[in-house]
Amino acid sequence: QKPLPNNELSDMYISLSSLYTRLVSMAALQQTPITFQSRSPPSKEITSKFQSHKPLKTSFSGGFPSLKLPKLTVKFAGKSRSRGGTAGAKMADSPAGSYATALADVAKGNGTLETTSADVEKVGKIFSDPQVYDFFVNPTIDIEKKRKVIDEIASSSSLQPHTANFLNILIDMKRIEVIKDIVKEFEVVYNKLTDTELAIVSSVVKLESQHLAQIAKGVQRLTGAKNVRIKTVIDPSLVAGFTIRYGNAGSKLIDMSVKKQLEEIADQLDLGDIQLAV
């Protein structure tokens, strides 16, 4: 893949810088505390059975002084992503990769790859609850009880039959403990099959859809991917601005956060680490 011409990189930098400026301005005008709440638990019917934890809440307040626009920082932690070759073979080396590839093959074969991807995402959210995960990996709990709960999950979450059967197979083979890894590996397989670039956008506040679309276009221009999938993360430690992580295993980083700017100032002044109180 050929590198982007300097004028295109400049255009993308100006676009992201403009977005950064708007976000910092919005934060500076904020005078009242804002409370951010994590995503809702997967399903009331399911989580009630396992006494799901309460959502995590984080408080953030205060304004910001006038800040200099940071440089566009792109870090490379390894080689760029390959869109073919040995990627699939490497994933299949692990049990989770083998299961994920098998499920993707079934979904691709019956034309339900997109729906199955949505199913796997639901499963990931459900098993992210420690109470749910501990229930299924507990060897003292009867398999039939676990199967019954799987049926309830499939019904309440509208999972496809082959997705529910897949979970039952993991239970029967006593491999349900790798379900979290399977969810991660399936995303990798799905992205490879659909030529999709995953970009994780971290920010202090939830970004508007038009801002995310602007970031997606920038990542698409950088990678040449057919599709770009955005995942958002709330990170108060950034102070303001945002970061974009993409590439193979998140090996590339665009850092347009105020935290990064403050760290660079500290390095220049030889002040050591700056401790940010958030």
UniProtKB/TrEMBL annotation:
Example of a GO cellular component annotation carried by this entry: membrane
Keyword Membrane: yes
GO molecular function, one term: proton-transporting ATP synthase activity, rotational mechanism
Localization terms from the record: Membrane
Protein family per UniProt: Belongs to the ATPase delta chain family.
HAMAP family linked to this entry: ATP_synth_delta_bact
Subunit and interaction comment: F-type ATPases have 2 components, CF(1) - the catalytic core - and CF(0) - the membrane proton channel. CF(1) has five subunits: alpha(3), beta(3), gamma(1), delta(1), epsilon(1). CF(0) has three main subunits: a, b and c.
Protein name: ATP synthase delta chain
Organism: Davidia involucrata
